[in-house]
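Bench notes, afternoon.
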Amino acid sequence: MQNIPAAVAETVAFLQKHAIDRPPVVGVVLGSGLGMLAKKMEVIHSFPYNAIPHFAEATVEFHKGHLVYGTIAGTHAIVMQGRFHYYEGYSMQQITFPIRVMKALGVQQLFLSNAAGGINPAYKKGDLVLIEDHLNFLPDNPLRGVNNAAAGQRFVDMAAPYNQLLNSQLKAKAGALKMNLQQGVYAAVMGPNLETRAEYRWLRNTGADMVGMSTVPEVIVANQISLPCAAISVITDECNPDNLQPVNIAEIIEVAGKADEKLSELLVAMIKRQTGRYKT
């Protein structure tokens, strides 16, 4: 096995022993209320997170908490139905551990999704927004601590954290599907509370188009381990500080669910587009 941290190697060995006999070449992380893609898979095996060595447990009720292995459009893939968050009390290393496992299993491209609040007034509920860059306001970093050479280099370049080729392909595929895919800057905050009117104004002034509580730590680690990635936000609420309405979490999940079909269609089309390029 490649030079990887011991805990990653142990998890990979477990997954390979129990079902993953062919390397997944696509990895997907599904955010809050976003699970339709897993229903479009030919499922070979589904692992509850609490059964996987060194995996945390998803404590958010609308994150199913399963690692699903199978095929999408004929391509072997591994999909996280729900992720881990800093606000759940997990360390950044626990949050990003699955990304290291995906890479060690053979994943060549990573697609991430999340539910986000729309700060840009042009965004409406249900919009899909391709993340072109981010602002990291989280209070910790997954690369902090004693450097483990097996995990990757310490000083990771972030000039283009979201793979430009994948982003251009996603835009082209969305156009072919006549799907409106906006672009914007994602701000990551700790949560779990939502923002005040003053915080929304401040975030907008910093250059953020949307705000959420995830994704950025995973992207940092993906860049450390040279795993090309792209990410899409589903806008679940409109965060206009001059007309801010109380947020209903159930409504946020409902909006995400309605947009999930579009997101899944786009990801399936994207993976199908790439199928011939993968060495499976």
